[in-house]
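Saturday, quiet lab. Running sequence design on the structure tokens for the scaffold JK sent over.
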């Protein structure tokens, strides 16, 4: 008798920002997931004059998101999209119902990776819109609320670029989605600036 060999499973990534919005990528096998012991945070680095959204370890917290398969472990396109981030394999804390998931990685920017930024960089509103639209689509309004509540670093301004989006994967939001974002930004008291 020949021994059966197990077919290797594709690796997955955990998305917690724009990657939750499946209209922004080609990864079709995706599932809701939760990462415990991490939080979302706006990170300011000298790499660019805009804030990055990253995830960092943080005890007693969790973030919802999606995991998605990276067929044949072909990370090249995703690594290019996530330039400036480290891709780190998650050893624990990830909860999902995907039966086909292999190793799961998260893209993160350690606080000391790029050195300190020279001041606070603005958050692109077109990018924030994409993130929130993804959460509203996958998790409903509760997920949208939790996105804002579970994200730290709202101390920089938000750059309103909706008229001419600077984010390359910008999406068109419904009136309801736009109002949802605007209401939460106002509740946070974040300054919104225009170019």
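Result came back. Writing it out in full:
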């Amino acid at each position: 008798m020949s021994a059966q060999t197990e077919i290797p499973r594709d690796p997955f990534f955990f998305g917690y920002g724009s990657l939750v919005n499946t209209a922004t990528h080609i990864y079709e096998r995706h599932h809701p997931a939760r990462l415990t012991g991490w939080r979302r945070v706006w990170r300011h680095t000298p790499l660019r004059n805009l804030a990055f959204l990253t995830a960092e370890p943080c005890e007693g917290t969790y973030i919802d998101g999606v995991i998605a398969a990276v067929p044949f472990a072909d990370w090249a396109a995703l690594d290019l999209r996530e330039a400036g981030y480290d891709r780190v394999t998650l050893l624990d804390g990830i909860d999902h119902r995907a039966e086909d998931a292999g190793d799961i990685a998260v893209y993160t920017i350690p606080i000391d990776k790029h050195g300190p930024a020279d001041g606070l960089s603005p958050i692109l509103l077109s990018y924030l819109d994409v993130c929130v639209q993804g959460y509203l689509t996958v998790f409903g309004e509760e997920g949208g609320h939790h996105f804002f509540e579970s994200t730290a670093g709202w101390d920089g301004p938000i750059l309103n670029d909706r008229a001419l989006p600077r984010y390359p994967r910008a999406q068109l939001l419904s009136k309801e989605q736009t109002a949802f974002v605007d209401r939460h930004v106002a509740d946070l008291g974040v300054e919104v600036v225009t170019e």
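Notes for JK: Helices lie at 76-81, 125-149, 175-188. The mean pLDDT is 91. Ask whether to fix the surface positions before the next round.
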